[in-house]
Each structure stands twice: as structure tokens, then as C-alpha cells.
User: Which sequence fits this backbone?
């Protein structure tokens, strides 16, 4: 059993997929990127901050936190704030390649030096997307809570021409790297 510092139903689903039992805990962090922050450093910082924020001294098992960002042309695309923001994101993603970075942080104490991390980087190529298609997708409600405004596991998959990397990492929790970290904490094995 582990603690999971995430409200993401996709991360919960992925942990269940590999047979992990978990208890949800809350982590509240400011997800604003620092000026000129490297995208990989950003996702790592977010995962670490979530882990440190959520960990409690009375926890008897390791805690896992993660963060996923979509990076297009060097810009971090977070969750869309509104329809206008979403349409601007999709205009940028249309007929273009982007990266999806997911950082994982696992700890069993409050010491930042004890946190172990991994980063998964995948490349996704979108087909050309019309404004009407993007509007219809926005109206499904699916994009609102997802980095980059889409979910590979939902109807957003119809826009994806090609991926290179980790499907589960694009969903929000790369299972290969997650299993490696959890094995290091002796809470996972196949």
C-alpha cells in the first residue's frame, strides 16, 4: 500500500492496473512556472513539491506524487483556463509535434534529499485540427482538467497521428518508471 498525492482519476486507474493499493492524500501547490524555468525542471519541481506538501510524519508507507506537462515549441501548456485558452492551445498543437513530460516523486519521509524521482518524456504528433473540431471537443468537457487540453485515453485520441514513448506516461503516470521507483521502496514487485 502507498499514499497517492493526486486527484487524477487516470493516475488512480493506472495504479489499479498494476495491482497497487493506495490511499489518496491531498497536496496543494502553486503550479505557476518560474520565469524561464526549463520544462523538465518544472515537472520535477512540481512532483517534489506535491510529495513534500502531502507527506505526513505519521505515514507508514511511501507516498507517490506526479506531475504531467505538455510542452510545445518550448512552452509549457497547462490545463486550459477557458475556451479561448483551449482554442489557442489546440491551434498551436494542430499539425505539430509536442512533448509530454511526467515526473514522479516517491518518498517515505519529509526530507527532500530522500525523495527519488524519474521523468518520462514522450513525443506526440497531432494531425491538422479544424477550429470546429476543436470547439466540438471542448464542448465534451474532456479537455478542461488536462494538461495541454486533451486526454490520450479519451476522445482526444482521434487527433493523435503518432506517439513515441510511454502511453501511460502521456496519460499521467508512466508505469515502467513508477514500478522501478516503487520497487526501490519495497512496495511493488511482479
Assistant:
Amino acid at each position: 500500500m502507498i499514499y497517492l498525492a493526486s486527484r487524477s482519476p487516470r493516475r488512480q486507474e493506472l495504479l489499479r492496473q498494476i495491482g497497487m493499493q493506495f490511499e489518496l492524500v491531498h497536496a496543494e501547490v502553486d503550479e505557476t512556472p518560474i520565469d524561464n524555468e526549463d520544462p523538465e525542471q518544472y515537472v520535477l519541481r512540481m512532483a517534489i513539491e506535491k510529495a513534500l506538501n502531502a507527506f505526513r510524519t505519521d505515514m507508514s508507507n511511501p507516498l507517490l506524487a506526479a506531475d504531467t506537462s505538455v510542452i510545445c515549441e518550448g512552452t509549457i501548456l497547462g490545463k486550459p483556463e477557458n475556451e479561448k485558452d483551449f482554442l489557442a492551445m489546440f491551434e498551436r498543437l494542430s499539425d505539430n509535434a509536442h512533448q509530454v513530460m511526467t515526473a514522479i516523486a516517491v518518498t517515505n519521509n519529509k526530507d527532500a534529499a530522500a525523495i527519488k524521482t524519474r521523468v518520462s518524456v514522450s513525443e506526440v504528433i497531432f494531425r491538422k485540427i479544424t477550429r470546429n473540431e476543436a470547439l466540438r471537443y471542448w464542448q465534451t468537457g474532456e479537455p478542461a482538467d488536462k494538461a495541454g487540453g486533451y486526454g490520450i485515453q479519451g476522445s482526444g485520441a482521434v487527433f493523435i497521428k503518432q506517439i513515441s514513448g510511454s502511453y501511460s506516461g502521456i496519460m499521467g503516470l508512466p508505469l515502467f518508471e513508477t514500478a522501478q521507483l516503487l520497487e526501490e521502496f519495497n512496495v511493488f514487485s511482479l
Summary: The first strand starts at residue 2 and ends at 5.
